[in-house]
Amino acid sequence: MRKPDSTFDTATAQRVEWPFPRGVECFAAWKSALSLLVDCSIPENADPSLFDFHGCSWQLPGAFVHVNGGSAMAMSRTQQVIDDRPTQHMVLYMVLEGQVTSNYDGLIQEHVPGDIVAVDYSLPYESQTSGYEGIALTFDKASAPAGLQNNAHGLVLTASEDAGAMLGAQIKALVKHIEGLSIHQSQVTVDGILRFAVAAFGAPTTRQRRDKRFLFQRASSTARQKLSDPDFGPNELAAVLGVSRSNLFRLFEPHGGVQRWMLAERLRVSLQSILRSAPDHKIAAIARNHGFRSEAHFSRAFQKRYQISPSSVRALAKDSMRMATYETLLKQGNGNGGAVVEGWLASVRA
User: Of the candidates 90, 94, 146, 89, which has an alpha carbon nearest to the alpha carbon of residue 117?
Assistant: First the structure.
């Protein structure tokens, strides 16, 4: 804990408001301010005149408390940014409203209200949101408790966990009462929050959950690269990952097992390929390109999953209005093309 400073015994932290209302000026100021730390952008089809970023902050001796929110945006701290704009800060970030999709050095996670995540700015990080509200508690990594300095990047606590609910209550209470506390009291509160975070994030179940998510990311990424190989299956994937077949099955158990997951992925990308390919591109060729040994095998599996034949989907692709709807949905789908195309097909069939 930091030693008390008599100059901070009675003074309170000064609230600083973000001074720009919604619009182009706000967008330019936001990009300029964040450029010190991350590359940032808004969706290509977004109107800068409607851009919104708002919030307030309090500077403490060893921390920066920031309550903020805004419209759709993306932020990226790649290795190039880290090299060009180094910083040793970390942050505890709590989502209050909206949803944030983040990539922590290869580990992709969806954050919803109540989630609290640790972000280490010395490691790659990307995020995007369609709109959010949140609280950021930023601090110097070197002065943080040791448990936050090592392998904490991307660790998450949820509101459904007792430790997550407790940590969230502490963070929100700090914001609620910070202007009634002295600077010293506020800093002591932050120090206590960080110590509790160490205990919460250090729980074996929290780190096991993160390790499991990271392994699934590796497994799914590897498998997607091999979908065109009909001989690549659970045994081959387990060998590449260096895990047992039973551990691999448990990893994919929520998806019905490895084979069922791989079949579903092959069918999703095949469906996209049918819609994207030229009319004279043979269904048999699409089947082979996505790991099916025969057109008959592909057609049976496709019909079972989608209740429609591949040739009938090819016919739907000739309808310009339906395809225009599909393209619009795809642009709004944040890159999740598989889910979009399946949702589109279900709506067309209905």
Answer: 94
